[in-house]
């Protein structure tokens, strides 16, 4: 493993200066920002309209479940017909879903229809961008591109709640739903009208297996690993709220999550500044081990200052692991299934996050903070165990198994 920070800075700049890169990255980021707002914007708008928490939970669950089911299906359609022909209709229908909720937040049936529509037809901007990277940058710049992508993903979750807060401060809670619709349309329009998205054509294959990318055993195991990471993150998102109620934390739970996101952003940028000679599969396992150390130590429930350190530690290894994961998924996915493979990553990661948040809630209600924190470590352990079990299978076809 060698580093050349001076050269890496030039390479980062060269990646962003590549034709169309900033446009598709920005378009994807704006569209994803709208979806990152949903977890906060929808409950706040419904609560303001007088909904009880049972219905709010039902709507949030419907949105998450429909998104999880729809993502790989839409990804498979992209692999068959192209990006623009899918992005435009899904963007329009998802925006209509948010507007539907905004127009009738007190009508339960209408709200549920809008939530399912917005969730199931989430524009596949995230997988579409990752499919484009190999054609946008040089081969030796791919690691930097995936690092930038991972960093942008972290910024989505930083700015999403901030946009919702701005809407609350200036307008009514329902305005955040209108903002989501506008951001969705703006992101899709920016991305779908870019030349790379318009030029991208599905790979022609003689036989399409019904399992799509999941017919590759190594890829299937690799995609299961982020479920554990999602569980850890979902646990953390709820845990810090309870932690901030028991300890005096400057800035409360948002400050702890901001530290976590900042460290992830720093980790992604540092990852891209390294000229790697270690295989991607070994990198991923190493980063997963780092996550296990950080999340495992959460079970000690330390005082605020050490807790801030753990927020930095857990965040630091997350984005680099995802950046390495993006590249390996692209290499392992069978021909004509890359978009669906990335869509499965989105779905399974989100499923893990939802599972972690759902499971840890009742534990925190019983006041068992240490046990609740241990759930995060269990998720990280699951991730590392899955990666270890499938390690020998994480080798792209035609590539020799080299020692690190």
Describe this structure in words.
- Residues 20-400 form the Major facilitator superfamily (MFS) profile domain.
- InterPro entries: MFS, MFS_dom, MFS_trans_sf.
- Pfam families: MFS_1.
- This is MFS transporter.
- It is a multi-pass membrane protein.
- By secondary structure, the chain is an all-alpha fold.
- It has 2 domains: 1-202, Up-down Bundle (Growth Hormone, Chain: A); 211-395, MFS general substrate transporter like domains (Growth Hormone, Chain: A, Up-down Bundle).
- It has 15 helices and 2 strands.
- The protein has helices at 5-17, 21-48, 53-81, 84-103, 108-120, 125-136, 142-170, 175-192, 195-199, 217-246, 252-272, 280-297, 304-332, 338-365, 369-390; strands spanning 2-3, 274-275.
- The chain has a two-stranded antiparallel sheet with strand order 1-2.
- Helix 3 packs antiparallel against helix 14, helix 10 packs antiparallel against helix 15 (369-390) and helix 14 (338-365) runs antiparallel to helix 15 (369-390).
- The N and C termini lie close together (10 Å).
- The model is unreliable at 1-10 (pLDDT under 50).
Topology diagram in text:
Elements: E1 2-3, H1 5-17, H2 21-48, H3 53-81, H4 84-103, H5 108-120, H6 125-136, H7 142-170, H8 175-192, H9 195-199, H10 217-246, H11 252-272, E2 274-275, H12 280-297, H13 304-332, H14 338-365, H15 369-390
Antiparallel strand pairs: 1-2
């Amino acid at each position: 493993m060698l580093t050349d920070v001076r050269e890496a800075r030039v390479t980062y700049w060269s990646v962003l200066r590549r034709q169309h890169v900033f446009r598709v990255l920005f378009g994807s980021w704006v569209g994803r920002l709208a979806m990152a707002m949903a977890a906060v914007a929808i409950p706040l708008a419904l609560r303001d309209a007088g909904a009880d928490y049972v219905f709010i939970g039902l709507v949030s669950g419907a949105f998450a479940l429909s998104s999880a089911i729809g993502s790989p299906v839409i990804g498979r359609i992209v692999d068959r017909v192209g990006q623009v022909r899918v992005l435009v209709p899904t963007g329009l229908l998802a925006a209509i879903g948010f507007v539907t909720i905004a127009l009738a937040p007190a009508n339960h049936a209408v709200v549920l229809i809008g939530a399912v529509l917005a969730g199931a037809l989430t524009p596949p901007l995230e997988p579409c961008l990752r499919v484009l990277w190999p054609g946008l940058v040089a081969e030796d710049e791919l690691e930097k591109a995936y690092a930038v992508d991972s960093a942008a993903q972290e910024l989505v979750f930083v700015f999403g709640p901030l946009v919702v807060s701005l809407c609350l401060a200036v307008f009514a809670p329902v305005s955040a739903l209108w903002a989501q619709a506008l951001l969705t349309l703006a992101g899709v329009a920016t991305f779908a009208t870019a030349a790379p998205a318009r030029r991208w054509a599905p790979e022609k294959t003689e036989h399409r297996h019904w399992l799509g990318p999941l017919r590759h055993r190594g890829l299937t195991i690799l995609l299961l690993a982020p479920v554990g990471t999602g569980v850890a993150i979902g646990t953390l998102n709820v845990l810090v709220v309870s932690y901030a109620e028991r300890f005096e934390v400057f800035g409360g739970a948002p400050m702890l999550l901001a530290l976590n996101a900042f460290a992830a952003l720093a980790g992604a940028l540092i990852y891209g500044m390294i000229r790697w000679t270690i295989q991607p599969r070994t990198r991923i396992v190493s980063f997963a081990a780092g996550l296990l150390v950080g999340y495992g130590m959460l079970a000690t429930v330390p005082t605020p200052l050490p807790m801030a350190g753990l927020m930095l530690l857990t965040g630091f290894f997350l984005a680099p692991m995802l950046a390495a994961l993006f590249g390996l998924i692209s290499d392992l996915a069978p021909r004509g299934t890359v978009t669906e493979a990335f869509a499965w990553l989105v779905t399974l990661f989100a499923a893990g996050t939802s599972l972690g948040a759902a499971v840890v809630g009742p534990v925190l209600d019983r006041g068992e903070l240490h046990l609740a924190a241990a759930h995060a470590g269990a998720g990280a352990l699951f991730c590392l165990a899955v990666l270890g079990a499938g390690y020998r299978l994480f080798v792209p076809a035609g590539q020799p198994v080299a020692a690190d």
